[in-house]
Every structure is written in C-alpha cells, then in structure tokens.
Design goal:
Blueprint lengths: L1 E2 L12 E5 L10 H9 L9 E2 L3 E7 L4 E4 L10 E12 L6 E3 L2 E3 L6 E5 L4 E3 L6 E12 L1 H6 L7
Antiparallel strand pairs: 1-2, 2-4, 3-11, 4-11, 5-10, 6-9, 6-11, 7-8, 7-10
Amino acid sequence: MRGWTLGGVHSMRTNSVYWLHPDEIPPSWDLWVKVKRHMSARPDIPMDWLQEHWQISKYNTGEFFDWHIDSRLKNARSSDRSLTLTCTLQTAPGAALELGEHRWELPTGWAVIFPARDRHRATPPTQGTRWALTVWGMAWNQDIIQSQNIQPSS
C-alpha cells in the first residue's frame, strides 16, 4: 500500500513509501519471527514487539531521506520505537545508509540494526533504484506505564 510519512513533507524526504502488513507476508516465510529474533539480540536496548506495519522505501536516482531520528517519544506516550532495522532489498550506486561517522552501501539482503534514537539518513542513488525495508522494534515507556497504572500488552 503506497503511503506517506511526516504528513507528506517533501523537504526532508523525496522518495516513495509503501506499507507492508504482516498478514501480507506468506506464513511459510516465518519472517516475522526471524526479524523479531534478530532485533531481540540487543539486550542493552529493550524491545517488546515489532511495529505492525513495515515500511518499504523506493529511492529513484536523486531521491533521499535527510537526517532524522525514528524515536518519537513524547512524555505522554506509553510506547516508542526503540530499534530500527533497515534492509536493502535492491541496491543502487551511491545509495547509502549513514549514521554519524558510519556509511553503509549495503548489498542486497544485508541489514543494519541500530537504536531508533540515533540520527541517520538515506543518501540518493546516483543511478538506478534502491529498495529498502524498515522495521521498528517498539518498547513500553516504563515511566508512563507505572505512573498511569497501564497493563501493557503486545
């Protein structure tokens, strides 16, 4: 399903976005379980569940997603993104994922997992089209959960 992020703001992001729901993934792939297992491998960063819709990004030549963070924590929110997994589905020259001093031109099928609060960007391909999958690990905001006596469920 084609969609927008950031309310369709184009100054930060010029690429196309599509959303994938878990029900659209063949059960035989066991992809949901595999991704969750990999993302749970960071014991230093809590992750309670995967955000339900996964993002597929299409970057044509010159299209980008500028510096941003994926964490959206507001004091009143009961949960937030804690981890980001980005996987290259199709590579293209010049297209890279950058986090601070790190730059990855990931081969097809390779992924990077990082804290959702880390500032990052996707650089534009110089030719061709890059496709990427992004999945977010979610975590309960324990301060809000305890202060409002909320019973978390996933």
